[in-house]
Design goal:
There is one protein chain. The chain is α+β, with helices and mostly antiparallel strands. It has two domains: 113 residues, Aminotransferase class 4, branched-chain amino acid transferase, N-terminal domain (D-amino Acid Aminotransferase, Chain A, domain 1, 2-Layer Sandwich), CATH 3.30.470.10; 161 residues, D-amino Acid Aminotransferase, subunit A, domain 2 (D-amino Acid Aminotransferase, Chain A, domain 2), CATH 3.20.10. It has seven helices and 16 strands. Strands 8, 9, 10, 11, 12, 13, 14, 15 and 16 form a nine-stranded mixed sheet that branches. A hairpin with a 2-residue loop joins β4 and β5. The longest helix has 16 residues.
């Protein structure tokens, strides 16, 4: 299979039809392209079943509602289409990407007469968002110069395309500096998240994580909180200052693509235990969790 996402074989579900992958295109004149007027989801299929599929679809529709897009399909339509596409592609384990965007019937900031496109693509070569060897050793993070914006300046509860430019710029900043990812602070200077994943810190039987009041409360984040709480860990959601990071023993990221990935260091802070015992156990437990949900 070609590495280019534009030149692959297979199928994409688009506006109610299965279209050959290479033909699933949108015109250059598109509000989704020009103004980032789009929402999307990131989901993962394990052994033929999408983890938290209905929760992802509900968030997809909620994101669209927040930015004023009315998806011309029902949640049931999307759930069925996802499963049919995975079957048609003959995948058992894959990444799933629903997307809705304003098209080119209208150009300009006004959206009153814009048409809405909806597509779903799946691919099977995202075994992990990070390399296996990096996950085993733990990631190196550097603080991004870009911050998560205030809730009254960006639709943080929507998984919308526009705000992700900050993540892209932060990721590029980190990689150019030789790091795996970036730690993003929020507009107040509190710890927020990684570029595409939520963050947790471990100290004894306590797990501290930022309050999701200006970034997405991830579906994987919610699953990990439930899983760790059932094991007797105390989850503390609070505002965390960067200078507090050195007080913790372990840290990890969570997300659909990242799953659970340990962090080795943030800036000049190296986590003291060195072996990520609890995080590695959570990684194993999470693997069992997604399998048991099938």
């Amino acid at each position: 299979m070609s590495n280019s996402f534009e030149k692959r074989d297979g199928w994409i579900w688009m506006n109610g039809e299965f279209i050959p992958w290479k033909n699933a295109t949108s015109h250059i004149i598109s509000q989704g392209l020009h103004y980032a007027s789009a929402v999307f989801e990131g989901e993962r299929c394990y052994d033929g079943k999408i983890f938290k599929s209905e929760e992802h679809t509900k968030r997809f529709f909620k994101s669209a509602e927040i930015i004023g897009i009315k998806i011309p399909f029902t949640e049931t339509d999307i759930n069925i289409a996802k499963n049919e596409l995975i079957s048609k592609m003959k995948f058992k384990n894959c990444y799933v990407r629903p997307l809705a965007w304003r098209g080119g019937d209208q150009m300009g900031i006004s959206t009153s007469n814009s048409n809405i496109n909806v597509a779903i693509a799946v691919w099977d070569d995202w075994a992990s968002y990070f390399k296996i060897e990096d996950r085993k050793a733990g990631l190196r993070l550097i603080t991004s110069p870009w911050k998560r914006p205030s809730p009254d300046t960006a639709p943080y509860q929507a998984k919308a395309s526009g705000p992700y430019i900050i993540c892209t710029m932060s990721k590029e900043f980190a990689e150019k500096k030789g790091y795996h990812d970036a730690l993003m602070l929020d507009y107040r200077g509190y710890v927020a998240e990684g570029t595409g994943a939520n963050i947790f810190f471990i100290r004894n039987k306590e797990i501290h994580t930022p309050i999701p009041d200006c970034f997405l409360n991830g579906i994987t984040r919610q699953a990990v909180i439930k899983m760790s709480t059932s094991q007797g860990f105390q989850i503390i959601e609070r505002h965390i200052m960067p200078e507090e990071i050195s007080k913790y023993d372990e840290a990890f990221l969570t997300g659909t693509a990242a799953e659970i990935t340990p962090i080795r260091s943030i800036d000049d802070v190296n986590f003291t235990t060195g072996d990520n015992t609890i995080t590695f156990k959570f990684m194993s437990d999470f693997s069992e969790l997604v399998k048991s949900s099938n």
